[in-house]
Structures are given as C-alpha cells and as structure tokens.
Amino acid sequence: MNLDEFDFDLPPERIAQRPLPERGSARLMIVDRAAASPAHSSFERLPEYLRPGDLLVRNDTRVIPARLRGERSGGGAVEVLLLRCERADADGEVWSCLARPARRLRRGGSAELRGGIVATWLDDGAGGAIRSVRLAAPRPVIELLDAVGEVPLPPYIDRAADESDAEAYQTVYARSCGAVAAPTAGLHFTLETIDHLRSREVEIVDLTLHVGPGTFLPVRTARVEDHHMAPERVEVPPATAARIAEAKREGRRVVAVGTTTVRALEAAAAELLAGRGFRGEVSLFIVPGHEFRVVEALITNFHLPRSTLLVLVAAFAGRERILAAYREAVARQYRFYSYGDAMLIV
Fold it and tell me: Range of 315's domain?
C-alpha cells in the first residue's frame, strides 16, 4: 500500500500540548466494527463498554528521563536522547541514541553533558538516525537520569518538559524502567478506573514493551510494506501468557491497551497461545492484511498521519473506517496524540 493512503488533514490546534487536569477526563470515541458510525463518551465510562470476563492487557513499561543536554567540545549546544544501554566496560557505557545537531557530531568528537557525563561519538551517523555513543560518568548513567535528565516529550509537543510531565507522561501502573516514550493509551487510566474495571469482573494483566525508536521513527518509504521497524525489548511473564491462553480457549476477549501492547501480543502469539511466556526483541510491523491471532479489542489514542501506529490501527479496524473516524474526531474537536483523547475499537 502507498503511504499516502494513510494521510489526513489535522489542524495544528487539535494537537494536545498539555495533559488534561484530571487524568481520566479525556473523551472516548467508540468504534464498533459492526456499527455504521462511532459513538462518543468519556474515558471514565470505559468500564461500561467492556464485558465481564474480558482480559485487559497493558504495558507496564516506565519512561526514563532520557533527554540530556550539554555542550560540544568545540562549542555549541548538544542534545542527546538515550535509547538503551548496549553494553558496559571499563571505559564506560555504550548507548544507542538520537542526537542533534547530527551533522556536527562526528566519530571521536565529545561533549560534556549534565551530571558530569562525558559523551564520545563512536560513529558518524552514516547508518541512519540512531547513533552509538560512549558515556563516561561518575556512576551508572541510569542512576543519574532522575537528577539530570528530562522527560522525552515527543517533538509535536511544542514546549520544554516541566515538572508536571514527570508524573503526567507516565501511566499509574508503570513499573519496569526502560522506555523513551510513554505507551500513551495507558495515560488515561486512574486507580479508580482500574478498580471499577475489576469490580465489573474485567481481568487485568501486564506485559512489558520498552518503547523505543521502532514506535516513533517516521516511515520514509513510499510503499508501506517496505518500512522496517527497529527492534524493541519485550517480556510477557508466564502468568500473563497463561491468562491469555485461557481467555482464548474460553472465548473471552483480549483487550489491548495501546498499540505497543498489540505489537507485543501479536509478535509473541505462538508462544502466548500455548501458554508460554516470552522474552526477546520484536520488530513486527503490522499492516493491513495482518491476521490478528490474540487481540480482539483495542484502546488507543489518535495518531500521527503516515505513521506506523496509524497503519496498525487501520489494519485492526479497516483503513476507510479509521480515516472516517479521524475526520469525525477533527470535526468534533477531539484532542490528538500523546496527551490527547482516546478511542476504543471493538
């Protein structure tokens, strides 16, 4: 399919720049694949639209304050977004990262980052946007980030992160540190909503997908199928796998919270349907025509045009249906992207 088929017009003012004051107060569009048009509600009423016995699967990854600022040895500001630690040795830690100004960061060049971290570039960036950097620090870098790093808000949020983002850009159930972007569908959940779901006999289980560049890097190929996702780390505990296998045997719905959860479940489908846990890297790019083996309903936000996330949602619900729903969301002034409103697809 052509990437242009996943485009839509979005006025800039529809892009949410800040979270709502109340985490659970977002609007909720309900897209029933058996209905002619969407319905409209609020996220705090989500439990009313799920069934007793549904299995809700969520991504418990925790966003690390992975953006570091500093100054290049030759002068000039530098900004580094740490992705993940690849290895450590006597000379420091080697991380994959995104960095700017990319053209001025050459192999062997260095920069002084906040926290006394010295960065040395190990490549010229010829292989693409992701770079390799060695970090020499007074103690493990991950231990410094809470003090010197910044919340890595996405680029379409046109402001610097502030103290409120440290809480708002994190789900209330985040536990496993390692993501550089939030699984944003989960940002709407409050402890009260979770309690309400459980009181309605909706079962809730967790997995971990550490959101990395595979989720948010743009599609640069004209043909959607030619795009390759960067790998991301996934762990599905054996207990979660057992509950998924049981739900599928019993004909109960598996409801995924977010596109990251969908990719984790579908990439590990063979293991999960056999009741076995999974740990490894996944790079599944879900496009129209994908046979969904695990996920039967999806909670998600409204995504960027021409993005892997929009392609996934279109694969799940149908391209024309989703684009029509997005046009209606724009007309009804829904809020888009990470801090925006939500959609439930059943």
Answer: 3-63+166-345
